[in-house]
Amino acid sequence: MDFKKEFLKYLKFWPWFLLSLILCVGAAFIFIKIVPPTYQTSAMIFLDKKQEDKTKIITISTDQKNNEDNLDDEIRLITSNEFLLGVVKNLKLNVSYFEKVYTTQNNAVNEVPFVLKLTVSRDSLPQVSYEIKVDKGGFIITDPVAEKKFRVNGYDGKEAVNGLPFKIRLASKAKKNASYYFDKEYKVNLEPTDAALKELKSSLIVLSDEKSKGTIELNHISSDPVRSRKILNEIIVLLDKSIVINKQKTFTNTVTYLNQRIKSFTREKDSIESVKERYLQNNEIAVMDNYIAEKTADRSQKTESSLLNEKQISLANYAINDIRKRDAGQTLGTNYNLESSIVNQMLLNYNTKLMDSELILQRAQKNNPAYITLMTQLRVSKQEILNSLEGYLNFLNQNNIVNKTQETIAASKIKNIPTQDKILGNINSNLSMKEETYVALLQKKEEAVLNGAILESNLKTLNAPETNYSAIFPQPKSFMLGAFLFGLLLPFGIIYVRLYLDTKVHNEEDIQKVIANIPILGHIPKINTTEKLENTATSHSLIAEATRTLVSNIRYLLHKKKEDKGNIILFTSCIQGEGKSFCAFHNAVTISNLNKKVLLIGVDLRNPQLHEYFNINKNVSGLTNYLANKNDDWKEFLQKDTNYSKNLDILLAGEVPPNPSQLITNSNFEALIEEAKDLYDFIILDTAPVQIVSDTLNFSHLADVTVFVVKYDYTDKSNLVQVSNFIKKEQLRNVGILINAVNMKTAYGYGYGRNYGYQYQELKIKRPWYKRGLRIKEA
């Protein structure tokens, strides 16, 4: 990329850049002076979540426990409509006061010499502004929008004016010197609560500080720093009150809940105790451990008693059998270990009597009556002993049955002890749990009562509201720098878009991108009407020098001919208005001034232009007359123009014919050319545009050189595509391109300018500075 070329391409529009800079920087300067600066007021508060957790009556520890640093709930509270509505009402933000000055739009003030008493509710206030002025008679109130004026007489504020939503009186401090305020004007803005709330929300910024955990930063943006500080202070106060109120609600709800739970657990505990009492009574249990020991001892006793009884049964059976086996003279055993004292005594008595009988037998015979009587008594005693033993045995058998039954009952009771212990354990467990919960609830209630007595907020103000008096809007340096950059970028963007969308031809590169390998013959400068004809042999004007260069370049395209005949130079273009007639005329004048015989023919039969350069009537006889009638001599229609050169002859087109294509394609035109070659050194043809009609293509083969005229800042690049096709098809021969109407002061890349290699006459066109860089309509 050629940066110099790109720079110069934009540099020619420097007046627009200068104008844009002046307007943008000037507007920014005026804006800074008119608009009141906006300041940011900040405050920082700290919420101690750990202290809050310590004062909680009931704490729940789970994996989902909120992070101590999470302040989303507090931020949502501060920015909620209900919370900010309290700020609006407490500070009466529906009404704003301003001192009317001429350097700013609104110079906010916090003290005014009057007091407004609203006669309507704040929610239904109209959104309107009033201008208020104090004078000797009272107050003059103006509604600039409705263009109404209201007069309030006196300073006491008793008069209600129809159409005003307030009463007004002079403040006590201002009454001492009311004349001091006569020259001042004030402005009062009223707005409903909803509008004031929206304005407050839009100007309030609440952020949590990530670096300092538990810290909230409050920012308020306004042109009134005093009001901003009041707003932030009020937010802090309301937040502190809200925290305490929420804690009080939590305390009240918690105590109420604890009382309900305590009553419920009291009923449940009493019910379980009643169940336990009934169970113990039904099962004859005093203390479970004693009950177990008692039943175990009872079972042991019953078992032991049963064993002893069975042993006595065995001994009794043994004793009966043993006594029965003994004869009448034998002693009975006394070591049967029977527990019957009667039987034991009877056995002793029997043995005693038996010993007595032994003494009698030693002295008498068996038939002795005493002996017989004694033996009879012994038999009777033995039988009585047996009878007693059998009675004792029956008694033992009865006792054995009873003992077995009691033993079974005792064993059953022992077997049921685990079940009873389990049931009683469950009852005791439930009762213990209820008692523990009951005690815990009583403890929590006591803690709640104590915490309720010392409720306090966990909010602490780290930084009181402070205003940064370095204005955030408009910032003079940044604003002026931005205006300066915008002043540069605005015209640059417009020019860039204009150049990007511009499809016109501006330099050789534009042409060569479409038509390659075609030589550029030269550049014809853009001049005004008065300089157009200054092209004499001694002229040093731009047009004269440019056409001389053109002639020199054309000669390089001319092929050497064996015959000494004139050269045919054909001038054409894409469309009408590109200056081909102008270039053909000046080229003819320049060649004729080189002592060459030149014939300039106007072949554009549809729109002839050459007559204008010679001040000749358009309808004068010319080429069309000859083409229509070959019997006429074309030389009779020649115009001798001695004003420019005696070597120049002109054959104008003549009247516009109804059939130009038919005329130009007949043999008369070729005959004319052939004849003219012998008479002139150069024959210059001013032809019709090739893209509009096909007239030129019908005789383009006659030309030795085709000069294709492209107009600077006029010819569209798309038109050159079709011309390129004509060249490829050889419908145009030996083509060279001439760029016409080049603005030498603004164009870049043509080799012309104020430092051109030869002296030239300064153009006399004087343009206003604001038109420089724009297109100039050429003559």
TrEMBL record:
GO terms assigned for molecular function: ATP binding; non-membrane spanning protein tyrosine kinase activity
EC category name: transferase
GO CC annotation, single: plasma membrane
Protein name: Polysaccharide biosynthesis tyrosine autokinase
Limits of the Polysaccharide chain length determinant N-terminal domain: 15-91
InterPro entries: Bact_polysacc_biosynth/exp, LPS_length_determ_N, P-loop_NTPase, Wzc-like_C
Superkingdom of source: Bacteria
Transmembrane intervals: 13-35, 479-501
Membrane topology of this protein: Multi-pass membrane protein
NCBIfam families from the UniProt entry: eps_fam
Record localization: Cell membrane
EC number, UniProt record: 2.7.10.2
Gene3D superfamilies linked: P-loop containing nucleotide triphosphate hydrolases
Keywords per UniProt: ATP-binding, Cell membrane, Membrane, Nucleotide-binding, Transferase, Transmembrane, Transmembrane helix
CDD domains noted in UniProt: BY-kinase (cd05387)
Alphabetical list of SUPFAM superfamilies matching this protein: P-loop containing nucleoside triphosphate hydrolases
Major localisation: membrane
